[in-house]
């Protein structure tokens, strides 16, 4: 299978490229720069120059391959409307190009805002609909293509996809703690973050592209929920900093943009995903990897 991957040179994307190549597939990766293209080609993939705003490149990538994995996102947390608009346009462009082809189309999504008070399951429908909603309503939009001849799959990733070299949410929490001189958790810190090691995440993506049915919602989650107070405490102890509660109303002021996300309860089950894909996460836990963020 020849697979087109957006976000191919990013954190999850680069491991996903390696996973597909190791399984004998060919990869065409979207690259925003010559440097990104060179890194992709050094891994054994082919590069297609373009970005999320270059809709012609997205069409070309989807048209010329056997399946599409959409992992890229602008992640503009200061101006989320920019990210939401780009995400919706990209998903619609890719879906329209794949319509009637029967080819797989996996779209990365998140767990925020789906349910409250319990772990999210794969049966829970994402309430975000329309261009002004979370991620531009891209999960629901993508799954709509399951009725239009596309093997569309939504992959909801844990908020922390961790491992050596990660510069995502946990790295941002560590940077915020260093800057503030203390490690804070929001409220009483009982809200939880699910977690998954990046190699487990990449394997789940490959298995989904290879065989997940159209319309499937998948959870790329290994640990159902780690209390955020435990995460903050481990960071504080590792850095030799005090640990304490942050007022939820001041979370973004005291912790920065990451404070909003650190105050969310993002626990999720992946029991149905593991059973469907015969996927059994075996990588290090978040606790295993945290010391690497503190070096």
UniProtKB/TrEMBL annotation:
GO terms for molecular function: aldehyde dehydrogenase (NAD+) activity. Residues 3-211 form the NAD-dependent epimerase/dehydratase domain. SUPFAM superfamilies: NAD(P)-binding Rossmann-fold domains (SSF51735). InterPro entries: Epimerase_deHydtase (IPR001509), NAD(P)-bd_dom_sf (IPR036291), NAD(P)-dependent_oxidoreduct (IPR051783). This is Nucleoside-diphosphate-sugar epimerase. One of its GO terms (cellular component) is cytoplasm. It comes from the Bacteria.
């Amino acid at each position: 299978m020849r697979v087109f991957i957006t976000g191919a040179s990013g954190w999850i994307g680069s491991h996903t490229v390696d996973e597909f190549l190791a399984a004998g597939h060919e990869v065409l990766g979207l690259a925003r720069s010559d440097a990104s293209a060179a890194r992709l080609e050094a891994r054994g993939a082919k590069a297609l120059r373009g970005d999320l705003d270059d809709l012609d490149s997205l069409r070309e990538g989807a048209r010329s391959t056997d399946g599409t994995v959409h992992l890229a996102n602008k992640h503009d947390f200061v101006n989320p409307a920019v990210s939401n608009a780009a995400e919706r346009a990209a998903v619609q462009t890719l879906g329209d190009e794949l319509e009637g082809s029967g080819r797989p189309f996996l779209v990365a999504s998140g767990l925020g805002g789906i349910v409250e008070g319990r772990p999210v399951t794969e049966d829970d429908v994402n309430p975000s609909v329309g261009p002004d909603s979370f991620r531009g309503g891209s999960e629901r939009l993508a799954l709509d293509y399951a009725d239009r001849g596309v093997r569309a799959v939504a992959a909801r990733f844990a908020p922390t996809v961790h491992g050596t070299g990660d510069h995502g949410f946990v790295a941002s929490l560590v940077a915020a703690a260093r800057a503030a001189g203390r490690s804070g958790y929001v409220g009483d810190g009982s809200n939880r973050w699910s977690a998954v090691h990046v190699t487990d995440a990449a394997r789940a993506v490959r298995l989904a592209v290879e065989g997940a049915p159209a319309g499937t919602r998948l959870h790329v989650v290994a640990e159902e929920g780690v209390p955020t107070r435990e995460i903050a405490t481990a960071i504080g102890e590792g850095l030799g900093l005090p640990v304490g509660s942050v007022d939820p109303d001041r979370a973004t002021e005291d912790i920065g943009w990451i404070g909003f996300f650190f105050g969310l309860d993002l626990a999720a089950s992946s029991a149905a995903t593991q059973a469907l894909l015969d996927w059994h996460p075996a990588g290090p836990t978040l606790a295993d990897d945290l010391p690497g963020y503190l070096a």
